[in-house]
Amino acid sequence: MKTLLVTGGAGFIGGNFIHLLMSQQDVRVINLDLLTYAGNLDTLADIEEGDRYTFVQGDICNKELVSDLLRRYRPSALVNFAAESHVDRSIDAPDDFIQTNVVGTLNLLECSRQYCSTLPEKQAESFRFLHVSTDEVYGSLGAEGLFTEETPYAPNSPYSASKAASDHLVRAWYHTYGLPVVTTNCSNNYGPCQFPEKLIPLMIQNATVGKPLPIYGDGGNIRDWLYVQDHCRAIWRVLEAGRPGEVYNIGGNSEKTNLEVVDTLCAILDELIPHSSHIPHAQFKHFVTDRPGHDRRYAIDASKIKRELGWEPQETFESGMRATVRWYIDNAVWCKRVMDGSYRGERLGQP
Prior knowledge:
Blueprint: E1 2-7, H1 12-22, E2 27-33, E3 53-57, H2 63-73, E4 77-80, H3 87-92, H4 94-116, H5 121-126, E5 128-134, H6 158-177, E6 181-186, E7 188-190, H7 199-208, E8 213-216, E9 222-227, H8 228-241, E10 247-250, E11 255-257, H9 258-272, E12 285-288, H10 303-309, H11 317-330, H12 332-338
Parallel strand pairs: 1-2, 1-4, 2-3, 4-5, 5-6, 6-10, 7-9, 8-12
Antiparallel strand pairs: 9-11
């Protein structure tokens, strides 16, 4: 049975990825997560611990712990989702992002390198260190063009700078030490189990209780939106067939302004949970001061992963959004439990 060590598996993307792995009959998962504010075991409540799944609470910066897990479970791959990931939080507390995203990734790389040195040659060559990153490392696009795997890095926030640094470390450990790494850079994810500080779940949560729907600036910032389960399928495909040392951009082919995203949500909410006073949800839109250094546009060219590995998204923006809204409506208990922590929907990342 193939064993994977997944870091950050109680988070949004990591949790969805573990659910995908559990559908693969020949995979065992070791999930290492510190359970910070965005890590939630409720996301994995339907997965029982046993021969195929083990949860370990711990820090990716803990060298002894990571080394022990690698020695004990002898995984064929390490998939690194563990990261501080919210731009607004990085503006408030950049130190946390450097510690987790940079120092943590360094520790995982070093532990993996030492682990591979103990393996027989063929096992060491087949091991994969898959580093999950973001399109934000590329900076901001103009009105035209797409991010490719060759686009120079130009991060503009503490978050994207920390992820760019971790990406460079991963690249260096391949070229210097020969560690068989693969990096994926994805566009904006959305879907089930996303912590409600991010745009789409925050809008859904506010709309269901009649709160304003805050939109940064003029709402014209553009992102490419990727349904999380499509992203997870792409990561699995990269693990199966991605070439060591390569970078694969993963996008949803769904460029939308923030205003378009909110309007789409409002139309779906009008249909599924109409306001008690029959007021359209769009009437609750509220424009607020923009985020400092807010990149204007991101857009991913995902042609490489389609060409080389045969992956492309299965969900359209419309089908993915409808599934997402339905999930949050049907999982109000999950939403309430994750909001029982320190976050209460307040504005973060103000200058």
